[in-house]
Amino acid sequence: MEKVEIKYRKWYKGVPPRPIKLQIPGWAGDSHGHSDGDVPQPWHCPPFVEASTYGLELIYTFDTECTVRNLDGKVVFDGDWEKEYSPDGVRFPPFGNFAPGHYGFTSSLDIKCPPNCVIRIEPHPRFYTDRTGTVPIPVCGHIQGDWWPKVFFVVFRAPLPGETHIFRQGEPYAQILVLPKRVTYEVTQMASAEVAKRNVRDARIHKVARQISKNTWRDHQDLCFDDKYKVLSTVYAKGGEAGVDRFLEEAEANQQSIDTAKAEAVRRKMPRKLVRRK
Questions:
Q1: Average pLDDT over residues 68-73
Q2: How far is it, in rounded angstroms, from Cα 17 to Cα 156?
């Protein structure tokens, strides 16, 4: 596991970014159920869980709850800001119109990242599971925090007419990732040998899915789910691609033995006349 060190400086009531944890009940699901008849939950999906807990979350720490609305194309910020006091005389609210269709909000943080890295701002994972339309929608952006010394602000997409974004004390409003400042992508088509290898692996996973899964269940709509991805991810972590292929090859051989034994058992139960005719 690679360790990334970041440092922070805060303004007013700013708090350091913190690791993202799944909230159940909450944005990651309203149930811990994972068996027959249960409703699928966001946390049931390993890729979503891994992505959701990869970064750090930014927390709204102001005492005042703020609602952001779109009134005739103008972004309006509602909240009782009289109780907020800034020691350096900054006026509240800490929100402002940024550009058409967008608004800004101070993070109350200055974050220093490692050299040649950037701080990437993205929506918090709770945005993707929200059904109320009230979760703020940050616009992605890169901050060169290795040298930029200022408290940064976050830009949000403005609510559509009829929508309301809500900022509540203690709730996350965005996430940050620390990434290389520059990266070059080289996109090439797989060679035929690699295509063939992955096709074999794909077919084997399909064939032995139920055998290798540690948990197989049907949801409230009788759709089948299993944890083969999680099982194979663990195998990969220990043995790499070669380990995954060995594991699948052994599972396939075991499955063939089971199928052969079942076929033989069926043959033995057949009437002798039917067996001779064959």
A1: 91
A2: 18
CATH 2.70.40.10 domain residues, the chain: 7-20+55-180
Backbone angles phi, psi at 48, to 5 degrees: -70, -40
**CATH class given for the domain over 7-20+55-180:** mainly beta
Burial code (b: 16+ CB inside 10 Å, e: under 16) for 239-276 equals eeeeebbebbeebbeebeeeeeeeeeeeeeeeeeeeee
pLDDT in tens, 11-43: 888 999 999 999 999 999 998 888 888 888 889
φ, ψ (nearest 5 deg) of residue 150: -95, 155
Q: Which residue spans within 34-116 are E strands per DSSP?
A: 56-59, 66-71, 74-78, 95-99, 102-106, 109-112
pTM of the model: 0.85
